[in-house]
Amino acid sequence: MLGAMQDFDLRVTHIIDHAAREHGTREIVTRWADGSESRTTWAGIRHDALRMTQALRKLGVQVGDRIATLAMNHSRHLVSWYGAVGVGGVLHTINPRLFDDQLEYIANHAEDQVLLYDKAFQPIIDRMKPRWTTIRHYICYDDGQFEDWIGGEDGQTTWATGDERDPCMLCYTSGTTGNPKGVLYQHRSTFLHAITGLQPAIFDFDARSVMLPVVPMFHAASWGLPWGGAAAGIKFVFSAVNDAAVLTELMNRERVTHSAGVPTVWLSMFQHMDATGASLPTLRHAIIGGSAAPRFMIERLMKAGVNVAHAWGMTETSPIGTTGAKTHDWDDLPFEQQVDIKQMQGRVPFGVELRCVSLDGPGEVLPRDGKTSGALQVRGPWVIKRYFKADKDATDAEQWFDTGDVAVIHPDGTLQLTDRTKDVIKSGGEWISSVELENAAVGHPAVAEAAAIGIYHPKWDERPILVVVKKAGVDATAEEIRNYLAQHVAKWWLPDAVEFVDDIPHTGTGKISKKDLRDRFRDYKLADA
Ligand code: AMP
């Protein structure tokens, strides 16, 4: 016997229908790369997405075809998310910061049929066109070309229907080794993920919310914001350029209450505010994720009255995994302890399950004791099962997915990330967290960026060294930095050497590339080795 309730397919086109019907006049503002601005509404976004669906059908796009974008955050990109899924296609957001070989690989692997792109990325198109073998149509967003393309359509059509398990979106995640891997989201997983994002501890949206997402639409599904924001009917303010002065001005003028970005975004905002005396008086909710938020960042935002949601997730988890939800005793805790909690990666929302297993042997599930660190595994309805076109599942028989992160889970379920499995440093049989060393180091006033890597040592196997980029105009010696670290980490964790460099290598998604850094220091010899 089945339950007797309605068969309402969990397809993401319902989300835009809802936004247009219930929040139709709520604005979507875009500040374009050329400095101009435009305004539309959720009703306008839906109308344009329907017109794009008609235009795509005229190009011969079929259900299941991949429609790619190479674009920053703006209203036409948002239209394309819904237009692509509306035709029954799969939206493939490409990260323009990837290297050419990766760009070639992912568009061909995805078998993209159509590519919509910003004029700013024309050089990438010109370079890559001969290497992209499946793209039949290139459509530029700028100079009226997108409007011309959909301009002949009237929007009098319906969305493609189908199974809620149909794919709707494809995002590639570029590991530090091997080819990027595709994560193929379903309508159902995306719908459930959008609803989860509406929890106060995650996006904290209500009818008054005005969100400027700095997280790009091409990274990790933009944390689900284009879906979740529509479900909540919030006002979006997009900026097609990520310049701190532009963002600050926009946030103040449009009275932005919510923003989301990786820690480096907040860092550049702080630098701008310090230099100009600007502030963000209307901001009250900041989502920080993608890499660990340093303590001073959380503290500064909290002191300014901003609620910080320090979130952990991955492209493979849609990406919401955890967020810094308040604990039951939050209101009784002193400020310092509240910051301690926010500095960790928080707890799961309903739907996500986490566990840590031993790093040394296969399978042993570790206690949630706040001490024992292990390989972090995750499962849930919006967690990957199998990479796109892979011939076997990425999960075990019980659906656990190995995140590649190393973590401790506290008795109350709080997740504390300590490293990546490939980056932990093993010294004398014990693990040293490179991330904790880095987080401690960036608290030093002279340190702009720091990365810890393990160097071969004949006695200890590996010992850490710390690679540091100094802030302009501020000096410090290696010894001063070691003395500072000694106040924050165990003595045997102290790096054997501190090396100053002009730059630290980054991946296409802006994370420190430990692999490239290790390559740079391949022949490095420790003084006592
Ligand atoms: P991506 O799929 O590119 O978003 O990368 C996911 C990875 O980013 C995770 O596996 C973590 O290693 C890292 N990450 C994401 N959020 C956090 C966070 N709040 N703190 C530390 N690392 C994070």
Automatic annotation (TrEMBL):
Residues 17-388 form the AMP-dependent synthetase/ligase domain. Pfam families: AMP-binding, AMP-binding_C. GO terms for biological process: fatty acid metabolic process. SUPFAM superfamilies: Acetyl-CoA synthetase-like. It comes from Novosphingobium arvoryzae. Belongs to the ATP-dependent AMP-binding enzyme family. It is an enzyme of class 6 (ligase). The keyword 4Fe-4S does not apply. It catalyses: 3-(methylsulfanyl)propanoate + ATP + CoA = 3-(methylsulfanyl)propanoyl-CoA + AMP + diphosphate. NCBIfam families: PRK06187.1 (NF004837). Its EC number is 6.2.1.44. Residues 436-511 form the AMP-binding enzyme C-terminal domain. This is 3-methylmercaptopropionyl-CoA ligase. One of its GO terms (molecular function) is ligase activity. The keyword Manganese does not apply. Keywords: Fatty acid metabolism, Ligase, Lipid metabolism.
